[in-house]
Amino acid sequence: MLSSRLTPFLFLAPALIGLVVFRLAPIGIAVAGSMTGTSLMGDLSFVGLENFAYLFTDAEFWSSLQVTLLFNLIINPLQLAVAFALALLVFQQGRAIWFYRLLLVLPMAVSTGLSAVLFGLFLDGNLGPFNGFLEWIGIGAQAFHRNQDQALGTLIGIATWKGAGYWMLFLLAGLYSIPSSVQEAALIDGATPWQRFRLVTLPLMRKPMAFVLVADTAINFLFFAPVYILTSGGPSGSTSVLMYQAYLSAFTFSDLGRSLAISTILLMIILIIVALELRLLRSPEDHAA
Amino acid sequence: MTETIARNPLAVALRYGALSILAFAVVCPLAWLALASLRPQAEIFQPVSEFGWRTFVPSRLTLDNYRALMSGDFPLALRNSSIVAVTTVVFGLVVNALAGFAFAAFDFRGKNLLFLLVIVSFMMPFEAIVMPLYVLISGLGWTNSYKALIIPEVANGMIIFLFRQFFASIPKDFYEAARVDGASWLYIWAFIAMPLSWPTIATSSLMLFLSQWDSFFWPVVAASDPDYAVVQVAIARNINFEQNDWGGLFASTNLAILIGMIPFLLMQRFYVRSLISGGIK
Amino acid sequence: MATMSVRGLRKSFGSTEILKGVSLDVADEEFVALVGPSGCGKSTLLRLIAGLEEASSGEISIAGRPVTRLAPKQRDVAMVFQNYALYPHLTVRANMGFSLKLRGESKAGIDTKVNQAAEILGLSPLLDRYPGQLSGGQRQRVATGRAIVRDPALFLFDEPLSNLDAKLRVQMRTEIKALHIRLRSTMVYVTHDQIEAMTMADRIVVMQSGKIEQVGSPLDLYDRPINAFVAGFLGSPAMNFLEGRIDGGALVTLDGTRLSMPGHLGGYQHGQAVLWGIRPENLALAAEGLSARVEVVEPTGPDTQLLLRIAGQPIIALLRQRMKVRPGELIHVMPEPGMTHLFDKESGRRL
After folding, report:
1. Most CB atoms closer than 10 Å: which of A158, B18, B33, C239?
2. Which chain C residues touch B4 with a CB distance below 8 Å?
3. Bridge partners of residue C187, in order along the sequence
4. Beta-carbon neighbour count of residue B102 at 10 Å?
5. Over A169-233, what HEC string results?
6. Does B188 fall in a domain?
7. H-helix or E-strand spanning residue A143
8. How high is the ipTM of this complex?
9. Residue B260 falls within a domain, yes or no?
10. Residue B143 counted as domain residue
11. Bridge partner residues of C276 (DSSP)
């Protein structure tokens, strides 16, 4: 029957057209666009790899790449560690624990943009309480995102405030998937709490931890809103991540080719990460029971 | 030393102590903002030297800041965000549930490949394609319009995935019995499958709503015109530009956070479960 | 190897009391099975002995040493779990040697013991596999092997065969029993399967609602159950019960039928409400006796199982012969002398 063979595609069409046009096609546009240049008149012309060649000689690009890598090198392990610590702390029964869990995941309901605004106010010397607190305990007021040496750290702190509870949920689900009898077997086998953690819990958490690390990295390579809202890439380029460079190139310097070249580089990184993620989820660990 | 089975009370105290400190660190900024937004204008500035309980607790609570909001450009931003978010929820539910149903109920050529596309589309964070998507949208002449904000966000891989998971959990007999009775597939989807799937509908609505309510990068790029500024963009602009209405900024930020947080709190159990099923399963 | 004893053990979870004062002595080298319906507290008792739960009150000692407040690692017990609880990330070898490694034994020492245990259980070719690559029966063996390697004072088994299919269960039953004889170790074995308990144990502990109903050798319990619960729990098909009142030498059933049972009911109080019990295999065809209507005939090959109706109540008879009877026929059966049981209706106690 013709109709029944067409039916699935009629059901799929609206969503698939949306995904193909607004998710898949932009990847092609990025790659194609990265090989075009725009003249002052606004004409498009094919320039091959010129945009990339120019990027690789551009000190600003290298410094931005360095900032992005540094940011990711710190934030991803940090968020994983904090999220794992939180998951271990709330991995318990009881009403009180349920309440703590709720409090810890609250920030995931606050958008990244609003988190940035919130901390912009909270850390402000005149408007927020935090510097007053630092004065009060004797550390003294800090400039945070307005200081070249503190800005990246401040953004990392804000992102961790927002993200740790979210990633905690995945690790908590991982902890729950370890059969309690396996922990009990270790108890009977004579393992101390530390041995149980290191020899049983940790190896069995490898997969959820790898998932969190990979998924978190994908998000943090594209970190943008707090940079735009709080630092505009500054002070002195200390927070100018690649995504922000891509934005600036297009909207401040009207250099769409450069913007798309950076986007293409980011996309390649992200697609590699997604491939890793897929492999991780697809291949059932051969020795999992 | 002999170890006993009884829980070590010191360990319990340490656990709850650590949790309390962490929970305080997480909640403190939110609580501070909520209280600060109820402060009289005169108390907004908090000199660093005057740290104390007054830093957190206003001398009197007032809704002045919220009242003042209503006269500025914030109502427009609220309106824009609401139109964008609600439209996306309505169309997103239909479009993605249809696709999820197709993946669950039918066998067809290319199914696995198409499903892979769905999965990749939600594993790849949206921000990755914002710049080229802007090129596409401006090529279509859609910049600075509701279209630009809504249409690219309607098809959502995560929601398709959730609906597929749910529809696949309904025994096929259910659908086939209705087919034998002469129902069309569209009828089965609308009157049998959808009514059963209300938990998925509820979480998906929340996810679609939050995806729009929280989005910032795309609106900044695609609809930078003040007439189309959504809440996130309007607030972010206000913190950057020199201005006097800090009370208004407090109030609008707090309001925007609450509007995102209340549905989350109401539905967090469903929401968390769906989130994890999308990530790990 | 060692003795184990439990005195006045109680355990509550919140306001529900799971164990209501349990006392039990297990002799050196003895195999004791804890049986009972689910929720009777047998698994809780085992977990208390292992140290996985803490007793609300009462005392536990192993090898004469009080262990009530000690952590599992200090009790010198090994446990085989229902779902095997193998470490999924470790090979069979590492699973079996895990406890020895924690104890700090030398690598050579661990290898010797693991190889030895693997030899006994036929696991030698599987030592480098992961649990996920093993069949259910193999996993069960690894779990047992992990316990053997420890050479513990006491082995604990928590329904170790319940996840296996019927055929494998029978095979593993024999293997564990052989292992007990070979190792001459003390074992406490929880099961809900009364056949497992009957075939494997030196002594059976029947539990119900957090209490021990009766302790004894399998045949003791089978032949002289202390109450109607134990009588009904052990044996398959289960013991038949007829409810009624004693009237001289006869039993008057609920529907008023008068079953005269000469020699069976002498000496009991007239009018007492009782349960009269007879095991299916203790009924024989007779020219006269209890008249029974045949409802279902189930030939099993060597035996024939009949579902009968006597005095309006269903009764199963297991006859060691092939028979030509049809449903609807009227036959007569006679209880084997000395094989009937009488219980007080009210308390269930044996009379």
Report:
1. A158
2. 69-71
3. C31, C155
4. 27
5. HHHHHHHHCCCHHHHHHHHHCCCCHHHHHHHHHHHHCHHHHHHHHHHHHHHHCCCCHHHHHHHCC
6. yes
7. none
8. 0.87
9. yes
10. yes
11. C242, C342
Extract the tokens encoding B145. Answer: 């319009």
Judge whether B1 is closer than 8 Å to chain C, CB to CB.
no
- Closest chain A residue to B139 measured between Cα atoms? A29
Contact criterion met (CB below 8 Å) for A165 and A171: no
Which tokens go with A46?
């094919």
Domains of chain C, start order: 4-233 (3.40.50.300), 240-344 (2.40.50.140)
Q: Do residues C88 and A287 touch, judged by C-beta distance below 8 A?
A: yes
Return the partners of chain B (3 or more C-beta pairs < 8 Å).
Answer: A, C
Look up the CATH number of the domain holding residue B236: 1.10.3720.10
How many angstroms separate the CA of residue B154 from the nearest CA in chain A? 7
Nearest to A113 among B27, B101, B236 (CB): B236
Nearest to B214 among A30, A111, A174 (CB): A111
C309-318 tens-digit pLDDT? 988 889 999 9
Structural domains in chain A, CATH included, are 19-282 (1.10.3720.10)
From the DSSP assignment, how many helices (H) and strands (E) are in chain B?
14, 0
C-alpha–C-alpha distance, residues C161 and C155, integer Å: 15
Q: pLDDT by residue for chain B (281 residues), tens digit each?
A: 345 555 678 888 898 999 999 999 999 999 998 988 888 877 777 666 677 777 777 777 888 888 888 888 888 989 999 999 999 999 999 999 999 999 998 888 888 899 989 988 888 888 888 888 998 988 888 988 899 899 999 999 999 999 999 999 888 888 888 888 888 888 988 888 899 888 889 989 998 998 898 889 999 888 888 888 888 888 888 876 656 678 888 888 998 999 888 888 888 888 888 777 766 54
Look at residue B25 and tell me if it is in a domain.
no
From chain A, the residues in CB contact with B222 under 8 A are none
Q: Which of A184, A206, A289 sits opposite C131 (nearest CB)?
A: A289
Residue B4: DSSP 8-state: B
Tell me, yes or no, if B9 comes closer than 8 A to chain C by beta carbon.
Answer: no
* Number of helices and strands in chain C (H, E): 8, 19
Q: Are B119 and A15 in contact (CB < 8 Å)?
A: no
Q: Supply the range of the domain harboring residue B129.
A: 67-280
* CA–CA separation, B10 and A133 (whole Å): 30
Domain count, chain B: 1
Distance (Å, whole) CA B44 – CA C73 = 60
* Chain-chain contact of C85 with A184 (C-beta, under 8 angstroms): yes
Contact assessment for residue C96 and residue C149, using Cβ atoms and an 8 Å cutoff = yes
Contacts of A120 in chain B (CB under 8 A): 239
